[in-house]
């Protein structure tokens, strides 16, 4: 009985891990994914660049539309201002 208890206690101490690694190292990834703040691999970088480019293009299109609407509104305000000036000149009375 004494012999079996000594063997059972000694066995876990003798067994050691000679080769251990993480799953990420085994998968071949060298950097952390961009979500955790690392750089990521080339595919992730390229995909991120494509997404950023598409977003910039949409924002550029929206900005151009806003500029166009702003120009139209300014032209409309100028027409209204000219019309008001025309009406006040025809009424007479005060010097306009």
From TrEMBL:
<feature type="region of interest" description="Disordered">
    <location>
        <begin position="77"/>
        <end position="96"/>
    </location>
</feature>
<protein>
    <recommendedName>
        <fullName>ATPase inhibitor, mitochondrial</fullName>
    </recommendedName>
</protein>
<comment type="function">
    <text>Inhibits the enzyme activity of ATPase.</text>
</comment>
<feature type="region of interest" description="Disordered">
    <location>
        <begin position="26"/>
        <end position="51"/>
    </location>
</feature>
<keyword id="KW-0496">Mitochondrion</keyword>
<dbReference type="GO" id="GO:0042030">
    <property type="term" value="F:ATPase inhibitor activity"/>
</dbReference>
<dbReference type="Pfam" id="PF04568">
    <property type="entry name" value="IATP"/>
</dbReference>
<dbReference type="InterPro" id="IPR007648">
    <property type="entry name" value="ATPase_inhibitor_mt"/>
</dbReference>
<feature type="compositionally biased region" description="Basic and acidic residues">
    <location>
        <begin position="82"/>
        <end position="96"/>
    </location>
</feature>
<dbReference type="GO" id="GO:0005739">
    <property type="term" value="C:mitochondrion"/>
</dbReference>
<comment type="similarity">
    <text>Belongs to the ATPase inhibitor family.</text>
</comment>
């Amino acid at each position: 009985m004494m012999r079996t208890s000594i063997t059972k206690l000694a066995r876990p101490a003798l067994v050691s891990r000679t080769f251990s690694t993480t799953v990420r190292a085994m998968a071949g990834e060298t950097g952390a994914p961009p979500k955790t703040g690392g750089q990521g691999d080339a595919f992730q970088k390229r995909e991120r660049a494509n997404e950023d480019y598409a977003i910039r293009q949409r924002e550029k299109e929206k900005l151009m539309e806003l500029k166009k609407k702003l120009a139209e509104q300014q032209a409309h305000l100028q027409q209204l201002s000219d019309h008001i000036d025309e009406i006040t000149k025809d009424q007479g009375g005060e010097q306009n």
